[in-house]
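Before going further, learn to read the protein records used in this course. A complete example follows; check for yourself that the lines match position by position.
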Amino acid sequence: MASQVISRKNSKKDKFTSFLFVLPYLVLFLGFMFIPLIYGIIISFTDYNLLSSEATFNGFENYARIFDPNSALNSIFFDGLWNTLQFVLYTVPFLVVIGLALALLLNYLPKKITGLYRTIFFIPYAISVSVVSIIFLWMLDTNAGLINNFLMNLGFDSIPWLTKQPFAWVSLAGATVWWTIGFNMIIFINALNEVPEELYEAASIDGAGAWKQLISITLPSIRPAMLFTILMSTIQSFNVYGQPLLMTEGGPGDSTEVLLMGIVNQAFSQREIGTASAMAVLMALIMIIISAVQFKISNKKEKGEA
């Protein structure tokens, strides 16, 4: 009986200790994520202007204005959404495919340089977006950029990397891939390390080449990591803001003015917090729907193969 009482006391003590470890994250999550999220949803149903001291409830009027073709909010939201979707389409496939290719390449390198190889490709991920943008502005400037100077020395015309399409999208996508590819590479490296070597040995004995092993063994074995990488890359690309703001300023014209730029401008330049919150809520819903569809498609393929 005494041992049971002691055991219960130890169990309560362990739970309390575990709770203390979780408490700092819980406080930060509530303070910086959950509470602002709920407050933002509430504000989206109000006519809230930064110049006004009161937020008047107006129901779904902000959302109705977004879907009204005659409203300025309609073009801000849907033009920004289209530009954001373009950015996602231009970056996510490269982030996944190149990340996997870099991870696979690691298997063919000498063990002595694998650590250096991982470090070289991961270092850009630790750089802030402002530094990345400065680096690529220095390289891609039309008149004084490193690349254009090199091309002109070879007798070629300079390329308007940041001032004309499709070069602006190429520049933004290239900068983003260079900046974030290291994270995906590390995810794939860890996933590849979990694939049993016996499967490759058995496949080699059966005469399967490298391509057949990739299709039949590697890709099915790393499917969870693949899904995670696709989802994370999609979410990150959907939240793009710094690169187009600092590199192209939304130009040429407004062809690279992504949705988040429109939301920030509506909130802090136009001071319309209510409509900006409504646009942000719709953006979050779209991201959830896209992620859910990707997850559903992946699960169907996995069940079908099983």
